[in-house]
Design brief:
This is Histidine ammonia-lyase. It is a single chain. The protein is mainly alpha-helical and 506 residues long. It folds into two domains: 2-196, Fumarase/aspartase (N-terminal domain) (Fumarase C, Chain B, domain 1), CATH 1.10.275.10; 204-307 and 339-405 and 413-503, Up-down Bundle (Fumarase C, Chain A, domain 2), CATH 1.20.200.10. Helices cover 55% and strands 5% of the residues. The chain contains 19 helices and eight strands. The protein has helices at residues 11-19, 28-46, 71-82, 92-106, 115-126, 145-155, 171-178, 189-194, 198-228, 238-244, 247-259, 278-281, 283-304, 330-358, 380-396, 418-450, 457-466, 479-490, 496-503, and strands spanning 2-4, 24-26, 86-89, 134-136, 160-162, 168-170, 313-315, 320-322. The strands form four sheets. Strands 1-2 form a two-stranded parallel ribbon. The radius of gyration is 26 Å and the shape is elongated.
Length: 506
């Protein structure tokens, strides 16, 4: 059980809630803040003050005053009209993360919603009722309006939720089955549910969790490739990396050295060659730089998952109401664009190592690792597949955050496109994992040719485990299935249902 306070949520806790279905509980102090904030909204309504989104319309309609009798209708109209999501739904694990993040933001006590709303949202999470939320349609400023509107619809008993078999089911029937009472939105509540960055941030957190695992896996897979190519260990000496000073580079070199410790295949300078190619020799520098980017991404995500991204925000018991722009997704847009490049580079250098494993001009292994070169093609086309994926990643890595299209009659004249960046980051991560899966398959075959008894103890344990996933290449077969089995084995989500939904993005 994870206690939500509005200010202490971590990515590790989100991983437990979303990947392992752990339940949430609301802290008493946070509920007190929610109650006080709600009282402030009710005073604003009763005193007929002019406050954006409470007694006025939205966006370009912010100058239109709303009669007190129409406040409820204003909020439900907002949700229904803004539910304009397009395309395939977000993976179910992202939908769950979105609800947790929206709940956590409301618990900061700046949004003015009723306690019953946050309690209902927590009940949906704990009873695993996950909205079907289309991926496309958000500009990433004024918040993730379209995606979060689909989330909000479920709270009022409308829209769709994920069924047991992955199908979209009417939410009203599921709420009745689970004993959850739909709510009737009151003043400010519709706006409070959809003004925020929770779609891009939820997708971003899932991206980070997957990318972090991928980055760790890329190291031992690269180490296995080094063994297959009898790579030179000297380039990983700590003195060289400490001389440059990047902590992430130093850490990668240390972990790489630990993976190959005890190997009889690893060589020293001058034994077989003086230097290795960059894709081997520069692993600490390249992978380390990607870790620097991932550290930046993690820092921004852990701020954003505890951020107040609503508008307006209510302070001092309603005496201070600020209509600002915390819903603008630029911090996460830039972080996701940075992540895209970092993960794409892990795939780029992996594909170059695959080439060194299969190209007979670059090694002393059988051509294309084939058991019968010429008669059988071996891993020839696996390298083609990897090349295709890294090329696609280069297109996806184009930054989304440099684009902006005005909306709401030019009232909202600069937007982040952060949700697009987040979605593309996910696609790159799925592609990159499959490239690493191909490298792993090739490296396993290479060390088998060299003599598995010569491999380091740590990497031999990996090889023995993964030979149960992908068998040795004794003859040509449909390697597509091998790639997908290895991809699945490298996936950080162990729940096959959720894993499938995330992989569907690619």
């Amino acid at each position: 059980m994870v206690e939500l306070t509005g200010q202490s949520l971590t990515i590790e806790q989100l991983k437990r809630i979303c990947f392992e279905q752990e339940k949430v509980v609301i802290s008493e102090e946070s509920m007190k803040k929610v109650h006080e904030s709600r009282q402030a909204v009710e005073r604003i309504v009763s005193e007929k003050k002019t406050v954006y989104g409470i007694t006025t319309g939205f966006g370009k309609f912010s100058d239109v005053m709303i009669d007190g009798a129409d406040v409820q209708e204003l909020q439900i109209n907002l949700i229904r009209s803004h539910a304009c999501g397009i395309g395939h739904p977000f993976p179910e694990v992202v939908s769950r993360a979105m609800m947790v993040l929206r709940l956590n933001a409301l618990l900061k006590g700046f949004s003015g919603v009723r306690p019953v709303l946050v309690e209902t949202l927590a009940e949906l999470i704990n009873k695993q009722v996950h909205p079907v939320i289309p991926q496309q349609g958000s500009l990433g400023a004024s918040g993730d309006l379209a995606p979060l509107s689909h989330l909000a619809l479920v709270l009022v008993g409308e829209g769709k939720v994920h069924g047991e078999n992955g199908e979209a089911v009417d939410s009203a029937a599921v709420l009745a089955q689970k004993g959850i009472q739909p709510i009737v939105l009151q003043a400010k509540e519709g706006l409070a549910l959809i003004n925020g960055t929770q779609a891009m941030t939820a997708m971003g957190v899932v991206n980070y969790i997957e990318a972090e695992q991928l980055a760790y896996d890329s190291e031992w897979i690269a180490a296995l490739t080094m063994e297959g190519l009898e790579g030179i260990i000297d380039a990983f000496h700590p003195a060289s990396h400490e001389a440059r000073g990047y902590p992430q580079q130093i850490a990668v070199a240390k972990r790489m050295s630990e993976w190959v410790e005890g190997s009889k295949l690893i060589t020293r300078q001058g034994e077989k060659r003086v230097q290795d190619a960059y894709s081997i020799r520069c692993i600490p520098q390249v992978h380390g730089a990607s870790w620097q980017a991932l550290d930046y991404v993690k820092e921004k995500l852990e701020i954003e998952i505890n951020a107040a991204t609503d508008n307006p925000l209510i302070f001092e018991g309603g005496e201070l109401v600020i209509s600002g722009g915390n819903f603008h997704g630029q911090p996460i847009a830039l972080a996701m664009d940075f992540m895209k490049i970092a993960v794409a580079e892990l795939a780029n250098i992996s594909e170059r190592r695959i080439e060194r494993l299969v190209n007979p001009q670059l090694n002393d292994l059988p051509p294309f690792l084939s058991p019968e070169p010429g008669l059988q093609s071996g891993a020839m086309i696996m390298q083609y597949a990897a090349a295709s994926l890294v090329s696609e990643n280069k297109t996806l890595a184009h930054p989304a955050s440099v684009d902006s299209i005005p909306s709401s009659a030019n009232q909202e004249d600069h937007v982040s496109m952060g949700t697009i960046a987040s979605r593309h980051a996910s696609m790159i991560t799925q592609n990159a994992r499959r490239v690493l899966a191909i490298e792993c398959i090739c490296a396993m075959q290479a060390v088998e040719y060299k003599g598995i008894d010569k491999v380091s103890p740590k990497l031999r344990a990996k090889w023995e485990h993964l030979r149960n996933v992908v068998p040795s290449m004794t003859k040509d077969r449909m390697f597509s299935e091998d790639i997908e089995r290895m991809n699945k084995a490298l996936h950080p989500i162990t729940n096959e249902r959720l894993q499938k939904r995330v992989s569907d993005l690619a």
